[in-house]
Amino acid sequence: MKTDMKTHIGHSTPDRVVVRGHDLSRDLIGKRDFVEMLYFLSLKRFPNPAQLRVLNACLVTLMEHGWTPSSIIARMTADSVPEEMQVAMASGVLVMGSVFAGTTEGCARILETGLKRGGDRDAYCRDVVEEHRATKKPVPGFGHPVHKPIDPRVITLLAMADELKLDGGYVPLLKQLSAEVDRQAGKHVTLNATGAMAALLLEIGFPPDIMRGLSVVARAAGLIGHIVEEREAHAARKIWNLAEEHIPYENP
Amino acid sequence: MKTDMKTHIGHSTPDRVVVRGHDLSRDLIGKRDFVEMLYFLSLKRFPNPAQLRVLNACLVTLMEHGWTPSSIIARMTADSVPEEMQVAMASGVLVMGSVFAGTTEGCARILETGLKRGGDRDAYCRDVVEEHRATKKPVPGFGHPVHKPIDPRVITLLAMADELKLDGGYVPLLKQLSAEVDRQAGKHVTLNATGAMAALLLEIGFPPDIMRGLSVVARAAGLIGHIVEEREAHAARKIWNLAEEHIPYENP
Amino acid sequence: MKTDMKTHIGHSTPDRVVVRGHDLSRDLIGKRDFVEMLYFLSLKRFPNPAQLRVLNACLVTLMEHGWTPSSIIARMTADSVPEEMQVAMASGVLVMGSVFAGTTEGCARILETGLKRGGDRDAYCRDVVEEHRATKKPVPGFGHPVHKPIDPRVITLLAMADELKLDGGYVPLLKQLSAEVDRQAGKHVTLNATGAMAALLLEIGFPPDIMRGLSVVARAAGLIGHIVEEREAHAARKIWNLAEEHIPYENP
Amino acid sequence: MKTDMKTHIGHSTPDRVVVRGHDLSRDLIGKRDFVEMLYFLSLKRFPNPAQLRVLNACLVTLMEHGWTPSSIIARMTADSVPEEMQVAMASGVLVMGSVFAGTTEGCARILETGLKRGGDRDAYCRDVVEEHRATKKPVPGFGHPVHKPIDPRVITLLAMADELKLDGGYVPLLKQLSAEVDRQAGKHVTLNATGAMAALLLEIGFPPDIMRGLSVVARAAGLIGHIVEEREAHAARKIWNLAEEHIPYENP
């Protein structure tokens, strides 16, 4: 165990709060907005204007999707633990696991590996898609139960990448992968928003293994509105009733 | 149970995602930033520029405080559940309960009640402080273990309120309450950041009972950096060792 | 901050694990069952046979209730975070808050206060019921949406109290309170299982402020079966669909 | 989506609670103890006396280990969210992830696979250990930072397996694996309690993929005692102070 361990994140003295070397009260509050700070605290540098726009676009994409396990759980918990709002929000983000929330980072890892190892990108895309098809797993970032043939969020996100002239190579590789997915499937498969965000977040410097953190922040923000609506409308108890009515008990 | 219950938050069709009546891909992604959307989803209207600045200032104030129960817990959980980052973040926000995180809303309720009932504000402040002193509870928003005599964040936050000419009356009432706290204590007591945020968030339209949601979003964002540092530095195991060493077992 | 703080719970040395002064391997594993240990770890003494029977009866009462917010949430989370089973279980117990799970301790506090202050029990019960009626709150431990006029679990639990001749006075006071609830309501109101457990757990020495811990342990155990069924039957996605279908979106 | 989905776990009618076909009030409360019910709800059949003894022994082994991430987190959360005890308990079990709690199921999968595929067990054990050594991963169930050369709990657990004449073959295979671990390491490596529990829980019918559920139930029970001690002794704030003092901030 290292005996002289340090933290480089923050601390307080009587007249200062220091955050990664910056004076919070003098240099950050009122001078930097929340999303700049999110970028700074996560990546240890401030974003340029293009990076900030992309991060905002991805966060806005993630905030709200109506009924999801996340919003259902948050509303049930808000109904049962009304005095401690953070419990409903925490419960609602706990469900953001590998199955639904893991596809952004999964797609990002494929894109990152493809660029890092260089070589023939056609062959790389072919191999990636073949491996997923062999194990009957969807390629992360592809397929959507509702958005067919096109995920409308992807159009906006990729248009932003063009407009900002992001040139890290992730977007072209994603498009190439998308064409190969279609070719092997013998039909068009939706490139979904998690795929587009994977490319955009790589472009602005986020490593795959913290991308889920951004989803959590964005979704937590969206849950506030659900909790407000729950306090007015009590959907949680109706969902409970629906479960009892539509999935009845039967003796084993 | 209402049979025709509706939600007014969001839903998806094949070519659209609708969020509170707005088309997500066409009108929100790239057009509104994350903090505007946080305001909109929470309060059902978009903020004006002053409201947006204040909300950003409050969120930035809340994001990062170095070692706290929140960061310690998130790092311990990240060390033990490395593949599911949302678990560490959820665990780190669960601890934001009535004791530490509840003071913003507690102070806000005092300010809101004071303005709503009208009448003599001197008497109101005197009564509030007396009641708290009688039960030996600190007035929410006052006192700080480190920041004495002045919380440096409060200076910045209240200067912003002046600059933006916020005129809802909450800031003057907070200052009056602060003077009364000092008078009854017979010494200066720090007005802390949670008190200043209570006044500012009321000024921009947030009701007290969702203020904790903002703390959760801000802290969740700050936890990403702690999890990144934990993956490099393994403070969690050192803290575990410190507990074992400094709080040893003794037979009952 | 106390500098010589100790813990009296447990620690390990190379050849021993000590738990509250007992050698785990030599004296506890195989010698004491789980519920004896739960009593011992919570109350610092071992139960007698009657206390052990009562604790088992209360735990068995609490374990399983079919569809509840707890089981719905655990199943949704198990579906989304399949590799980390503890997340589903934790999420399912987070919802056991003041609204549903708090009634046992609420009723227990009423019974404990009534015995401690002595005096006229008729007057005490009358005052308690009047206060609750004045604020339109149900007396904790009374009322049930399904079990009318009698909660079948209460019969079994109170019969056990009789059989074991529990004589701490809590059960008679509960019955007296029940009669007063009926009298002021002008009709019979169900005495529910949380009320009966409040009396029984007080009889065996549990203070009200840790009773919820027992509910958490019992419910956590019950959730294992739900997670097993979810892996086979995927009710979580059906419940999600039901929410979308029966609580549709409408523009605000 | 199946339209006629059923649950086989439980439901309530006005005068009955049914749990997997049994009447809770008439047949279970007072007739079955908590651990029998835990077995029944998890595996859909009641245990025989030997199975019940083994399950109790494993649960008692898991309940309490002094300072762990689990107890530290639960105590910090109990200090900050005092009114909602389930939050501290949930937070304390969330940390029971793949790193620490996953070794029981990892070892169990090795033992289960070894028996299922039949064939040469020497070769199987040799391959398993070689594969782990090749990737520098410990074989799950082996190694311990404190218990050297022998984990005292393992002696008790394996003696119980002998006494009860468990004959499913898992214990002999575990011993064979242990010998092979030692042979390839060129020294004795501790067979730890999670390894012994893996064999015993397989013997009594638990599949590996719900073993973590048992750890959660056992640890949840142990956390009650920590929360009680925290309310008296406030170790959480001391641990926070220790982190600040021993892992100080340094500018990046």
Sheet with most strands: strand arrangement of chain A: 1-2-3
Number of domains of chain A: 1
Could you tell me the number of beta strands of chain A? 3
Q: List the chains of the largest interface with their residue counts.
A: C-D, 95 and 94 residues
The residue-averaged pLDDT of chain A reads 96
Determine the structural class of chain A based on helices, strands and strand pairing.
Answer: mainly alpha
Q: Helical content of chain A, roughly?
A: 55-70%
Taken in chain order, the helices and strands of chain A follow as EEEHHHHHHHHHHHH
Identify the overall geometry of chain A.
flat
Query: Tally the helices of chain A: what do you get?
Result: 12
Unreliable stretches covering 5 or more consecutive residues of chain A: none
What does the main sheet of chain A amount to?
3 strands, antiparallel
Oligomer: homotetramer
List keywords for this structure.
homotetramer; 252 residues; mainly alpha; Cytochrome p450-Terp, domain 2
What does this structure look like?
The structure is a homotetramer of 252-residue chains. Chain A is mainly α and 252 residues long. The first copy, chain A, has a single domain, classed as Cytochrome p450-Terp, domain 2. Chain A contains twelve helices and three strands. A three-stranded antiparallel β-sheet of chain A has the order 1-2-3. In chain A, a hairpin with a 2-residue loop joins strand 1 and strand 2 (16-19). In chain A, helix 3 (49-62) packs antiparallel against helix 8 (152-163), helix 3 (49-62) packs antiparallel against helix 10 (193-203) and helix 4 (69-80) packs across helix 12. The first copy, chain A, is flat, with a radius of gyration of 21 Å. The first copy, chain A, starts with 9 loop residues before the first strand and ends in a 6-residue tail after the last helix. The model of chain A has no long low-confidence stretch (mean pLDDT 96). The interface between C and D is large, with 95 and 94 residues.
